[in-house]
């Protein structure tokens, strides 16, 4: 159709939207209105119903126990379960190792001291601290765990967990029922040897902490903690020179047997000497050789 006289006489900016009604005859349609009437089909789309969201649900711990982890396809299999160098029968047995995962938010307990032992926990990501309650009511940090570590070994003997384990950041663990692991260890001898090695590492680590508390000064204790973290992050495929330390200065002091002021002063001295760079919880080792000589 031809453009109406009213539209032809108007600027392009006005024609882009519609003719001004006062500029055309009463009851006449503009070009834009005629095009819309010819080509536009209007549909009424019903609104999609939404389920009500309770505000309390937002504060509940996130549990993803229905999500399963197959050990042979897990990226932490070489640290948690020895799935390499297995025979064909052992691989078939390892393929049946399917465990649930659960998320633990920062500040939440994974398990508490005195709870009945039933499972080990492999850390998929995150950072945990182990805390024991002293007789005078104070909390003593006795250990920490990062991705690839297995927690709960201390509960195998007494059949109850010996400490509280708290997430220092949002984390995720793989729940390993101990009864199922024992049954699989009968089919996979290397799995049983792996348990022995894992418990041996825990004993050696506890002996190292006793050595720190008994014979090292403040600088030596902090240097050993930073180097131990660096070594463990490197073993898990992370950077050995740059990492986050979610533990507060007070928690570091509790673990190393030092006062808060001593920990802060030692961190500052290391930074002034060019051994490390500290920015809040971010740690960068600048001179590893000198740090090892502390």
Strand content: 15-25%
The stretches of 5 or more residues where confidence is low (pLDDT under 50) are 11-27, 35-45, 47-66
Look at the structure and give the mean pLDDT: 75
Main β-sheet, in a few words? 5 strands, antiparallel
Question: Structural class of the secondary structure composition?
Answer: alpha+beta
Strand arrangement in the largest pleated sheet = 1-2-9-4-7
Helix count equals: 11
What is the C-alpha radius of gyration, as a whole number of Å? 32 Å
String of helices and strands: HHHEHHEEEEEEEEHHHEHHEEH
Q: How many strands? A: 12
First-to-last CA distance: 90 Å
How much helical structure, as a percent, in the residues? Answer: 25-40%
Oligomer: single chain
Inertia-based shape: globular
Could you explain how this protein is built, in words?
- It is built from eleven helices and twelve strands.
- It has a five-stranded antiparallel sheet with strand order 1-2-9-4-7.
- It has about 290 residues and is an alpha+beta fold.
- α6 packs across α7 and α9 crosses α10.
Question: What's the layout of helices and strands?
Answer:
Layout: H1 5-8, H2 12-15, H3 31-39, E1 68-70, H4 77-80, H5 88-94, E2 98-104, E3 109-111, E4 119-125, E5 127-133, E6 139-146, E7 150-151, E8 164-167, E9 171-177, H6 178-187, H7 189-215, H8 218-235, E10 242-244, H9 249-256, H10 260-272, E11 276-279, E12 282-285, H11 288-292
Antiparallel strand pairs: 1-2, 2-9, 3-8, 4-7, 4-9, 5-6, 5-8, 10-12, 11-12
Helix pairs in contact: 6-7, 9-10
